[in-house]
């Protein structure tokens, strides 16, 4: 019952309570981002949603304008503390995952949940094998099991494995544990970046990316 009804109700209630704070913080950060390099504060990223439907995920921009799209060998997005593409304020914003705040709007629209598998790029769908497509049976989350416990310290395929574990065991208690663990992980600032060697995305030359 929780995963099919109460989880969505809880998403809406918590998101509505958080919305005023999210809007204020996002507005302040938008001004900082704009004065940093004069670019648009927001970034709209295409991601895979429930049932494989592509949606635009809202983020605050943390990268400089017109930067190349770099990917890890497994196809996931590359991020590093010394990534030359990051703006000066972008490094700080990413450290505390503040760039994810606008996704509260995605939750209210029904495209995301507060807790769930982190959404993949549409181009990654073709790399799913076996039961990995099961992660598309639920709404993706602002945070999730992998995000809370490992952040960026494990590979994309390992994250999918934990996503499937979450989907098979989702409960109110698990969601509350993930939310609390996420808050703790953000303040500890651990596993923020991955260490894989990046490669240029073969299908995208330059992007304005968050």
Question: Concise description?
Answer:
The chain is built from six helices and six strands, in the order αβββααββαααβ. By secondary structure, the protein is of the alpha+beta class. The relative contact order is 0.19.
Q: How would you characterize this protein structure?
A:
- The chain is an alpha+beta fold and 210 residues long.
- It has helices spanning 2-37, 88-95, 103-108, 145-149, 156-169, 172-188; strands spanning 42-48, 54-60, 70-71, 113-115, 141-143, 199-200.
- It has a two-stranded antiparallel sheet. A two-stranded antiparallel ribbon has the order 3-6.
- α1 packs antiparallel against α2 (88-95).
- It is globular and about 45 Å long.
- Residues 197-210 have low confidence and may be disordered.
Strand content: 5-15%
Strand order of the largest sheet: 1-2
Calculate Rg over CA atoms. 16 Å
Q: Determine the fraction of residues in helical runs and give it as a percent range.
A: 40-55%
Broad structural category: alpha+beta
Q: Please mark out the parts with pLDDT under 50 across 5 or more consecutive residues, or reply none.
A: 197-210
* Order of SSEs: HEEEHHEEHHHE
Main sheet properties: 2 strands, antiparallel
Question: How many strand elements?
Answer: 6
End-to-end separation in angstroms reads: 36 Å
Q: How many domains make up the coordinates?
A: 1
Rounded mean pLDDT is: 85
What's the shape?
Answer: globular
Number of helices: 6
